[in-house]
Amino acid sequence: MYTLTGPATSEREIRKSRFATIAAPVHDEAEARRFIAENSFADATHNCWAWRIGADYRFSDDGEPGGTAGKPILQAIEGQDIDRVAVLVTRWFGGVKLGTGGLARAYGGSAAECLRMAEKQPVVAMTSVELPVGFSDLALVEARLAAFDGLLIDARDFTAEGADFRLRVPEAEARALADLVRELTHGRSLARFPDEEADESRGDEGTRGATGR
């Protein structure tokens, strides 16, 4: 499975209609919808799109006949094993109707062409980290977080004692991050892993259910 390293664009003309495609990596539904809203053209005939993030996906035909635009875009994403991506294909109608089959080929082909040209990288499994840091350690911890490979800072909320960080880090590096922060702060800051705690909770519930039968 792959994702894009950054935005990619392509454009082509099919029977006098102009099709412009833009694709970009996204991390969640909110980011995907924001990307689509920011890159849609008000003067276009149709702004059709699809996004996929893990098992979640959405698509839109934006006024084209059902199944002729959004779904072919999604199929182009799936056909190239790409995840965490949003693709927007914008059409300016040129006066020649393409028919349902022609539309599906135009939208799916435009998306596939853009994704083929895009730079890609393997998907790295990420895990969430919650990290409270006191004011006395904040500058040092922030400096080390900035240099930590693959780490993403989703939020930094200040509190009376310091700041609460919400991070995403590659699963393979999660424990190394926790150890680093504990050593830097002499045990004052301890990382929490909400994803692991949720998995353990579901596992406990499953065990109880099996015992009860």
Q: Figure out the total of helices.
A: 6
> Describe the biggest sheet?
5 strands, antiparallel
Note the run of SSEs as H and E: EEEHEEHEHEEHEEHH
| Helix percent band | 25-40%
The CATH topology annotation of the largest domain reads as Ribosomal Protein S5, domain 2
Number of domains: 2
Q: What is the CA-based Rg, rounded?
A: 22 Å
Which structural class fits the helix and strand makeup?
alpha+beta
On the 0 to 100 scale, the average pLDDT is: 90
CATH superfamily name of the largest domain?
Answer: Impact, N-terminal domain
* First and last CA, distance: 39 Å
Widest β-sheet, arrangement of strands: 2-3-6-4-5
Comma- or semicolon-separated keywords:
single chain, alpha+beta, Ribosomal Protein S5, domain 2, Alpha-Beta Plaits, 2 domains, three-stranded antiparallel β-sheet, 6 helices, 10 strands, 38% helix, disordered C terminus
What is the topology?
Elements: E1 2-4, E2 8-14, E3 17-25, H1 29-39, E4 46-53, E5 56-60, H2 70-79, E6 85-92, H3 99-117, E7 120-122, E8 126-134, H4 135-146, E9 152-158, E10 162-170, H5 174-184, H6 194-212
Fold and architecture overview:
This protein is an alpha+beta fold and 213 residues long. It has 2 domains: 2-122, Impact, N-terminal domain (Ribosomal Protein S5, domain 2), CATH 3.30.230.30; 126-212, Alpha-Beta Plaits. It has a 5-stranded antiparallel beta sheet, sandwiched between helices. The chain has helices at 29-39, 70-79, 99-117, 135-146, 174-184, 194-212; strands at 2-4, 8-14, 17-25, 46-53, 56-60, 85-92, 120-122, 126-134, 152-158, 162-170.
